[in-house]
Amino acid sequence: MTFSKKFFVVIMVMAVMVSLFSNTYASNLVNNKVKLFYPIDGIKFTTVEIKVPREFEKRVELFALKALFNNKNVPKEAFTEIPKGIEVNNVTVVNGSAKVDLSKEFLNKVTPNHNIPTILDTITRTLFEFSSINQINITFDGEKVSSVNEWVFNESFKRPVVLPVSNKTKKFNESLQGKTKNEILDMLKKPENLYMAMATTTYPKKVYLDAGHGGSDPGASGTYNGITYYEKNINLSITNAAKAKLEQFGYTVYMRRTSDTYTNYTQIAGLANATDATCFVSIHCNASTNSSVHGTEVYYPDHDSYSNPFPNRITTSTELASVVGSALNSWNLPYWGTNPKVGNYAVLNGTKMFAILVECGYLSNSGDLQYLIDTTNQVDVGESIAIGTMNFFFINGWH
Ligand SMILES: [Zn+2]
Q1: How many structural domains does the chain have?
Q2: Which CATH number belongs to the domain containing residue 342 in this structure?
Q3: Is residue 40 a contact partner of residue 77, using CB atoms and an 8 Å limit?
Q4: Which residues of the chain are modeled with pLDDT < 70?
Q5: Helix axis angle, 375-395 relative to 313-331, nearest 10°?
Q6: Ligand 1 centre from 130 Cα, in Å?
């Protein structure tokens, strides 16, 4: 995917913190224009810049949301997730907290065809561009509404924060260093060899794998030696390898797709939520207009938009992201960091279980592309994701 970095905070486990948005994130008002975010698929957004008219110069946050809700501003390539004709009554910002008041019409107009997590992502992305806003509360004609369908609306949406990686995850990641995949797999067969957490709650060894894109949606692509390779196919191959390894270790695996089929992205979180999976792992490859950008990235949810998520879902998802990142870092060439990143994606925010999205590398970078189109490497990456996921169960004592 090509999503701009400015919404993500990078967590550096080894004390180096890099805030990728620090230079561009400061204000959603550059040259008197506000930036609006519109979805172009489940995990990608495109932006539009709109000039702020004079009468809104002191109410730029309100203007941005009104502009976001104005269907005339939706670019051709974007989905029109926000229902037409919804009034934004007001946006007031006090001490970093934004009160967003929408017309109750919204509640009547959101149908099953509208993806609420994606709508929330577009609102939060656009408003968190303002440095004046750290949290967002949404009301409808002044009233709080606890949920819309099964999605939360009465909780504050908070600006993505840097979450600490737990000591148990650090300890486990250290234990991976210098070990081969087979050595780790041997350890997994003998849990007494592992650092063991005392589990107070347990979760079933069930994983939902989402091979990104499919069918009419090819995802990113890259061309090598005159042949164009599509992300959807690489994703499926990696996902199949992850599935095989998980099943070999007794895990139940749910697959969003097992062949080249299309799923409307708005349905993916719901499909996963309909299962009893403990973890949701979405597998993608990236692309950038800058061909020197490369490497693997693992994302965890930005917020919960499902009404009844697993306890401590976001913190626990960072652990999953960290151990899967460590596994990839240990055994796969393109990886350049073990640092989980915040991913403001509907598939992550809308799932109820622990969730991550792995970007296995950049198809726009020739080194990553050559690595990722190799079928042996695809198996290797898939197995690393599986091993990382199984490690996550082990460090939590769910085995
Ligand atoms: Zn993708």
Answers
A1: 2
A2: 3.40.630.40
A3: yes
A4: 1-27, 41-43, 112-113, 160-169, 171-173, 175-176, 188-201, 333-338, 399
A5: 140
A6: 27
Which one of 103, 128, 158 terminates a domain? 158
Q: At which of 158, 193, 214 does a domain end?
A: 158
200 CB burial (10 A radius; 0-12, 13-18, 19+): exposed
Confirm whether 32 is domain-assigned: yes
Q: Determine the distance separating the centroid of ligand 1 and the alpha carbon of 369, expressed in angstroms.
A: 14
Closest CA to 313 of 149, 133, 152: 152
Compute how many other C-beta atoms are within 10 angstroms of the C-beta atom of residue 137. 15
Residue 128's pLDDT is 86
Residues 81 and 176 in one domain: no
Alpha carbons 131 and 19: distance in angstroms, whole number: 14
Cα(172) to ligand 1 centroid in Å equals 29
- Enclosing domain of residue 368: 167-395
pTM of the predicted model, to two decimals?
0.67
In a 10 Å sphere around its CB, with 0-12 CB exposed, 13-18 middle and 19+ buried, how is residue 72 labelled?
A: exposed
**Euclidean distance between CA atoms 178 and 173, whole angstroms:** 11
Q: CA 35: distance to chain centroid? A: 21
Q: How far is the CA of 290 from the centre of ligand 1 (A)?
A: 17
